[in-house]
Amino acid sequence: MGEVVLPRRMFLWCMAVIYLTAFVSLYVQIPGLYGNEGLLPARWQLRYSGKPLVEQLLSSPTLLWLGPRLGLDTHTAMELLCLIGAALSLAATLVEAFRDSVVFFCLWVLYLSMYEVGQVFLYFQWDNLLLETGFLCILVAPLTLIGGSRGVREHDRVTFWLTRWLLFRLMFASGVVKLTSRCPTWWGLTALTYHYETQCIPTPLAWFAHQLPVCWQKLSVVGAFVIEIAVPFLFFSPLRRLRLGAFYLQVLLQVFIILSGNYNFFNLLTVTLCLSLLDDRHVYFWLRKAYKTDNGNDDSKLWSWLCYLLELVVWALLIVGTIICFDLQLDTAKKGISSRTGECFFFFFFLCACNQFCFSFFMFLKMSLAAFTYHQFNLFLKTVTIPCIWIGVLSLTWEMVTSLFRCACVSGFFKRFWGTVQWTVFAGAAASMFAVSLVSSVGNMGTDKAHKRSAVNRLILFQVPFTFIEYDSNSRLWPGVRQAYEMVDRYQVVNSYGLFRRMTGVGGRPEVVIEGSSDGVTWTEIEFMYKPGNLSAPPPVLTPHQPRLDWQMWFAALGPNTQSPWFTSLMYRLLQGKRDVVELIQSDVSQYPFHQQPPAYLRAHRYRYWFTESKADGSFPERWWRRVYDEEFYPIVHLGNSFLEGMLNQYGLKDKSPPRRLSNTTVAQAVRWVRSQVRGVPAHTLIWTLIACSATFCLLQGLRHKSKDAEKPSDAHKATATDRTENAADGSSSDHHEKSDEQQADEEADKEADSEDEVEEEGEEENEVDEEDEDEERIEKR
């Protein structure tokens, strides 16, 4: 693989932007989610028992333990940490010097501090992915703020390889869990006929995607399986163009997801991880600049043609194998394409066999297996998991060896010694991260931790560790690796992934609608800003912001209210009329139907929602949604209601401690002032404003540097031209002297006077000066 200087810089810049998005998005929602009068106050997670600070940090690694020492309550301390994180990430976005290992360490610690008290509203896979990727940034970023250098380090390719391995684990696990779940929609290739209308927060384009023919939806599922399961093996290909092809396929999938659904910063973070597949040469191609290599054109034409041929074979196998293994056929009667999963097992195993040169196993399975069943897919996983690990081992070893060779080629003993020491440290860290990432997170997850995440992981966000994809492979891991994982588990250094395990809402999208009333007779629906409710309201576009209450409302609709204890807290706070909670529903409080007086009664019903269909004449319908009533989700409650009080006491949601006084320290007043400035501003508007301003500043900064770089070559060219002119002038003067000597000889022969010679020499020198001036003028004009 070529140099990765520019992709690494792009990766760090993108991570700074994603951190900025995550902190700002969370900051806006802190009062309603974790404030003293929020849904799940964060101070309930921190029990100050008088233990030393070190023991508190070890039990729960969060900087919020420092709040009382600064005179801040937990709510204000959370806002302060979010503001610090947003400021640091903004600085890293604008100034390259702040894209430093120390800065990324601070950002990781700050977000981990939020995660530890975030409870169910922060237990999403993208939060885990951000923490793991953020930790890798500490290894990838240069260490310059304490006297280091921003130059290329010999071990950069080793640490940057970890992001490629993380991308492989993410994509491969996301594809595999869809089949291991035994979900009939994934096995029948019909998942996308439900996905667009049943996802949490669709975009307007999701309505149009939902209208596509069923055959197109099936082809899309086939493409998703190929991109998520087969293509990730190309991440470790020694052929550069195969990696680039894998990059564009992954980006294409993420772009389609972004266009059809609001998944906050998750897809942007995945695209950022895809940058690990690039090299400097391709980035220069994007910039339309010539890429200078030391090797020149040393590659023989025969080797180039062999590489082209091998790449064509791989892509041909990918296309033909997809057609054969998914049984894609042109159905002329239905004017479409039919497909099934009957033979795709052979295809995936064949691609794995190509990567590992295990053709004999493939032929054996092809002859012995006649149908694609769940048990046969498990056999495939058992066969492929360990070889996948060895592919990662060989790829990482190659990067380590090449980096060590680069260290040995450094001139100077002390530079070579220091580079070798750095290589030893970072190579050991990379090997440790790789080993720990193989351990089963689910198998080692504590009871409390598993209980907290169960509501999320049980559904589409089911997490599958890499080796836990196949249990026997997981059981063969070295026990020392498991012990190392247990030591770092609480810090979210490595996590397990697997999205959309099962397709929900096959019988219609379940949606909880809350209604309020002042007299118990007339009921008014409480409409959320983002989630579906009003049948005529178009779906929003709010990426990269994540409205965490709207997301949890989607999860709550998938089961009874007892599976979502926080929903009782929501009903209680709305009956109390808490503004911080109301702003989670409508940032503009005037749009809330009970903004003048809280409702006296509340209830919740579950409906089934579907996208409307286009009319027979091809025109668009007046409404985006249609719905039917399903059942009661939450009974009628009011303040003092026995059912409500019993639920609050059962889940420990009623705060019995007296209200605490607000801190009047300078820091607390500054935090409250910032809150007053952003109150009422929609979060996605605030985020996009910051991103647009940052991108504009970086663009102007880049153009300014480009103009400076353009001026430097012109100055150098001018200096070179001046030197050439002086050399020409020296040459012309020497010729002049030779000619003058000949003239003197002739004049002596002719016995002419010396005074005439001097006059002629002065005239010729004046002519030479004029010629030099003319030459300089011509050069300056050029």
UniProtKB/TrEMBL annotation:
Name of the featured protein: Lipase maturation factor
Segments passing through the bilayer: 12-30, 76-95, 102-123, 129-146, 219-239, 251-278, 302-324, 345-364, 384-405, 417-439
UniProt lineage: Eukaryota, Metazoa, Chordata, Craniata, Vertebrata
Main location: endoplasmic reticulum
One GO CC annotation: endoplasmic reticulum membrane
Classification via InterPro entries: LMF, LMF1/2_C, LMF1/2_N
Function: Involved in the maturation of specific proteins in the endoplasmic reticulum.
Family from the record: Belongs to the lipase maturation factor family.
Biological processes annotated in GO: protein maturation
Origin species: Astatotilapia calliptera
Domain Lipase maturation factor 1/2 C-terminal residues, every copy: 493-635
Disordered, as annotated region: 708-782
